[in-house]
Write the structure tokens for this entry.
Amino acid sequence: MATDTAAPQIDVAPPRGWRTWFTQENIITTIVGLIVAVAVIVPLVALVINSFLVLDDLGFDTEWGLQNYRDIFQGRVIKKALINTAIISTGCTILATLLGVSLAWINARTNCPFREQLEPFNLIPFFLSPFVGAIAWHNLASPKVGLLNNMAKSAFGIDFPLFNVNNLWGVIWVTGIFFAPLVYLFVVGSLRRMDPSLEDSARTTGAGLLRTTFTITLPLVTPAILSGAIIVFVTTAGEFGVPFKLSAPFGWETLTTQIFTKAVGDDANHYLGAAMSMVVGVVTAFFIWIQHRIIAPRSYTTVTGKGFRPNLIDLGGWKWLAFAYNVFYVCVAVVLPIICLFFVSLHKIWSGRIIWSELTFWNYQKVLFFWWPESIDAATNGIINSFILAFGGASIAMVVAIIVSYMIHRTKGYGARVLDFLSVIPIGFPGIVLAMGVLVTYIKTPIYATLWILLLGYITRFFPYGQRNISSIMMAVSEELDQSSRMAGATWLTTLRRITIPLLKPGIFAGWILLFVIFLRELSISIILYSAGTETLSVGVYYLSNFENEPMTSALSIAQTVALLICVVIFRKVAGKEALTA
Amino acid sequence: MSENNYLQVDHLVKYFGDDRAVDGISFGIPEGKFLTLLGPSGCGKTTTLMCIAGLHKPDAGEIRIGADPVTSIENRINTAPEKRNIGMVFQSYAIWPHMDVSQNVAYPLEIRNMAQSEIDDRVAEALEIVGLTDMADKNATQLSGGQQQRAALARAMVFRPRLLLFDEPLSNLDLKLREQMRVELKRIQHEIGITSIYVTHDQAEALVMSDEIIVMSKGHIEQTGGPHSIYARPVNKFVSDFIGVANLTEGRIVSNGGGGSGTIEISQGGESVQLPCLLADGLAEGDDAFLSVRPENVDASRQPKDGPRIEGEVIQSVFLGNCLDCRVKWGEFEWKVLAHSRERLRVGEKVYVRLDPDHTLAVRP
């Protein structure tokens, strides 16, 4: 047999490889990679550049300078907004973390009654619009028109407003209850995956139940708690709708409400808006970087991936308190707001109390019947546009997500690492910040004032969510399944069509619906990029709230909420229980 | 001679970063034979297989199947994997979970646009060969490991490829099934007479199945030969150590008697002994070498016998029924000895170690 053991040493340099480069795989992945790179990087670069352009007093010309940043840190209004943002983000993070961790612990580790029935309700706020939540709480607990305040007055004769959400506390309250599921999702997964022997061995040393919980269980899930807390902090810092509705009209501005006025207001100043966006973006990106680099990698070192069924903690009589606590959360976060919005929407004029004799569906006609001449365009346009954007956006974003995930996990080399990095960046920048970047980038192009610019903003900001859904499955699916298809004679595209994508189907559906939900309620990108005719659902709600009245606002809010709740049901059917906790 | 080989690999080089995973290796295999690439993990055997499959692109070298140069970096040829007509069985079986067994096996034929009737016939035939006829409608997830293995084999051979590649296909099976599948795989390969390349780190697997074995380490070929010659005549320390169990100790060639035999001197604690041995190719008088002898070719007894004398102390003696597994300490060196069980050597006893000169080898370092 001819074998040559003493092969001569051949001198070959490490790979260069431009030779047989033009394959289906290389061409398609490179094109998508470049599009993603341009879509993500260009707006951020434009943002940086614009933030150093200073508008002169007449508002016509610009020059280079740092005046925008000086305005932020020295100007009275903006500096106060910056401080308010810091207070709200910190307060919301504390409240959401307390709520999220306690609810996760009750559901994952105790014998709280009906916890399996309660769990889906704990997650509902995750799918709903915090902006709508703010509108609901405004109608529940503002001093004059608050339903709760008026009920307290008529029932107990309390003459002063019991609650007041028109301040920073109100913003913290609403964002806190709406973002608690983010912490919940991070923590509940860790708690369920935890090796019960870690707790059992603590028990054998004589530590009691509560002591074990506080000295072993919670410290072990600290990385998950921190991850959730950081995500909440960053989300709150970029939250626009809640402070816009609850606190801004009463003198409590935040950076996001200020960015909004600089983007579209009467004294529009894109350059100052860009600088403010930079300040928010730098902070949030820094926190996300810490989460991604330092905290997330640790969350799996103490928690094994095996499917344990940990021993449940018997709370004894206290379990009913835990149950009551959980029910209370579901009430304030889901049930009360929806009921309140529903009743408000049935009135022609809302005065803070339900007038049973005057209930009507007239508002729904005004905001939903797009064929009716008296309908309000901003609302009816919003419905149509939002469904177009949600459907198209989710579809395109998932295609991008599949190809990007494929590149990250199935191709080796520099491109994979660059893309991995690129698909973390958008998570680090709140929607309103990225939207400012998109605005200053494309304002002078034909896509401005069309649905395309909204689509671009949505996909750029949110495709990483779909990508994470796909990636988690792709990592679990052996590359050999693809390779064996190639060996069987199928081309790269055929393999993608017949093997890779069918295997990813559950992840693709789950990711698609998640993005559909996000796009259907999206506010902070839309509010910057919309123009007359390209309103979205949330922009419609904003419009009604600003220029019409509370009952009409509530009617559209209810319509949006119903659509979102239907998505939640479908999501749970398609994706199963564990899909979100991954 | 290389023209007679059905598969010929020449000067193959593959880098991972700056690491030269395959370092210019060349080998070939005649049609219908079963070749095994054997080596520890990281030796480049799987990379070599992936280059043959077309799933990795080498940085230099040529691969020819029959008259078809599928890879020739110099000539800018690198045929896509799907165009090579090679069947491959993967370590994880890679049975597609969203298809049933017959759909899995039919897939390569559908890709080739065959008529449905012919697809049915071929699938039935392939499943028959691997003994899965009853499992045709089962989903991949319902199959045991061994059954998935058979389905993967059926899928790899159903389109009558030019070559069959196996990437550690048995490593995920339990020991008993593994032993059974070794024989089975070899039987099927022989039955369909397809040229096969098999990658494994399990030397027993290689010895049982192969016509020819290539032992690799660090991207190089260490030795090539049939199972018997690889086991009985390792040429260097690595192969001797990697295949089976061997007593290996440093020494020096003191004479070359011609005809491949000579004498090696080994020493321990000031004590030297010269032993007749067979010399590996390329060893000359005065060269540093290793003495290599398998435990079954070493005997230990209380009474000295003729020939060179090595006296040591029994430090371990385990009764295995047909023989005694002993360790005999000689200076710092411990001889592994399979002694006759009637000797009943006990720990602490002084014994004489004797090496069978016909199986005592001097190998390259």
About this structure: Chain B has a mean pLDDT of 89.
